[in-house]
Amino acid sequence: MFKKKHKLFSGAYVKRQTQGTSNEISFSVLDAISEESSDGAQSTPSLPLTEQNVKATMKKANSAFVPPINEIKRRKRSRRRRQALIASLVIVVVAVVVGFAATAIGNIIQNNTNLHASFVQAIEEISSTDEPLISLDELIADRIEEKGNYLTPASAYVSSLDESEKAFNKLAPSLKTAKSQLEQDRSVIEDLKAQLNGDDAGTADQAIVSIDARIAMIDMGSKLLEESFEAERAVKEAYNGWQLLVSADTMSRDAAVLASQTGQENAQRALELDQQAKKQFEEALASFDDVANSVEDSDLGSYIDYVKKRIEAAGYAIAADQAYIDRDKEALAEQTDLYTKADEEATALAEKLDGDPSDAISRLVAAPLSEDIDAYSEERQRAGQTDAYLREYLGDTDK
Questions:
Q1: Cα separation values, 39 from 48, 53, 62, 342, Å
Q2: Which of 135, 208, 250, 369 has the fewest C-beta atoms under 10 angstroms from its C-beta?
Q3: How many CB atoms sit inside 10 A of residue 182's CB?
Q4: Alpha carbon separation from 80 to 84, 87, 252 (Å, rounded)
Q5: Other C-beta atoms within 10 Å of 45: how many?
Q6: Does residue 151 sit in helix, strand or coil?
Q7: What Cα–Cα distance (Å) separates residue 5 from each residue in 10, 22, 35, 393?
Q8: Each residue of 186-238: pLDDT tens digit?
């Protein structure tokens, strides 16, 4: 009896989750058995649980069972839809991630491209200041000797000083604009430098050096020119003073020769010459005074003393000429004695003069400019070296 019951459960018990297969059939058989055993009112008494009775019952259940084909198909379709939905979601997620990644990479590339373009543009704008800097450099070269730090001799630039000042005054607004442009370029490059690396970062350093050198050239060069103009004006005044002194001396001697001769006509001519000489002596004195007041240690005292004495003598000469014309013998004699004494004193003072004082003044006023000239030359050289580097960089960038 135990063995028969064991065979029954071993034959009917199989895996559960296999709907529509032999498992479902087995469960149907068991259900049929269970229904027959539980129907007490309408069923016949239960048959003994024998192997023969079980087989008969299974045969009866199998003949009445219809496999649930539609349910199986529905469940398969449902699984396929779930799988398709999951696959679609995965594809969407991957597409979104790839899209974000592509956008991010594109933004990085675009940002790098824009950064490099801005950097190149900032470097190119440095060269926009070339023209006013070249003009400034040429003006300075005109003021400085090629072989040293002295101003050119007075006689070489007296006539061109006014033209140089006019040229500088005309150039000044362009220099101001150039300096403003350079300061703006420096700010832009400093901001870009924080985002650059490699060769571009090194180039940014060179660009800043170039900008600083150019700004220094503008500042130092402008100051140097202004100081050189002041120095040249002093030299020019000394030169003009000397020329006036020589011219006045010549007219005084010519007037003295005419005064020594008789005749109203000679006396009148002598008077005119003495008057012109006195005026030129006075102009010479004004020039020497200006130089002495503007240039320290100018040492023009001997020239000033001489001219003053000549002005005094010219005054006596004019009075004597007029006395002769007026035929005032007493006044003529008195003024002639005074003139003679003043002329002798002037002659003594003339021995202390050392010719044209403009060359000495030129060397004197140029000395303080020597350091400024050297500093300007260093900045000029620094700008040239960095400009060569930047030109090479731009050339490589264009390739």
A1: 15, 17, 20, 170
A2: 250
A3: 23
A4: 6, 10, 130
A5: 6
A6: strand
A7: 9, 21, 19, 98
A8: 988 888 887 777 777 888 888 899 999 999 999 999 998 888 888 888 988 99
In a domain, residue 105? The reply is: no
Identity of residue 164: S
Residue burial 333-370, b: 16+ Cβ < 10 Å; e: rest: eebbebbeebbebbeebeeeeeebbbbbbbebbbeebe
Structural domain boundaries, residue 366: 129-399
Q: Is residue 310 part of a domain?
A: yes
C-beta of residue 229 within 8 angstroms of C-beta of residue 168: yes
Q: What is the DSSP letter of 152?
A: P
In terms of domains, do 145 and 50 share one? no
372's tokens: 């400024």
Residue 157: both structure tokens together = 């630039």
Burial environment of residue 181 by CB neighbours within 10 A (0 to 12, 13 to 18, 19 or more):
middle
Structural domains of the chain, count: 2
Residues 182 and 60 both lie in one domain: no
Q: Would you say residue 69 lies in a domain?
A: no
Give the span between the Cα atoms of 372 and 283, in whole angstroms.
33
Q: What share of the chain is helix, strand, coil (3-state, %, to 5)?
A: 85, 0, 15
Q: Which of 221, 281, 218 is nearest to 249 (CA)?
A: 281
Residue 312 CB partners (closer than 8 Å, separation 6+): 342
Domain end (from 64, 95, 112):
64
From the DSSP assignment, how many helices (H) and strands (E) are in the chain? 13, 0
Residue 144 forms beta bridges with which residues? 151
- Looking at the DSSP assignment, which residues form a beta bridge with residue 151? 144
Dump the DSSP string for 220-248. Answer: HHHHHHHHHHHHHHHHHHHHHHHHHHHHH
Residue 87 has pLDDT above 70, yes or no: no
The single-letter DSSP state of residue 107 is H
Q: pLDDT of 88-103, one tens digit each?
A: 665 655 555 444 443 4
Does residue 99 lie in a domain region? no
CA–CA separation, 120 vs 123, rounded Å? 5
How many whole angstroms separate alpha carbon 263 and alpha carbon 353?
Answer: 36
pTM exceeds cut of 0.70:
no
318-330 pLDDT per residue, tens: 999 999 999 999 9
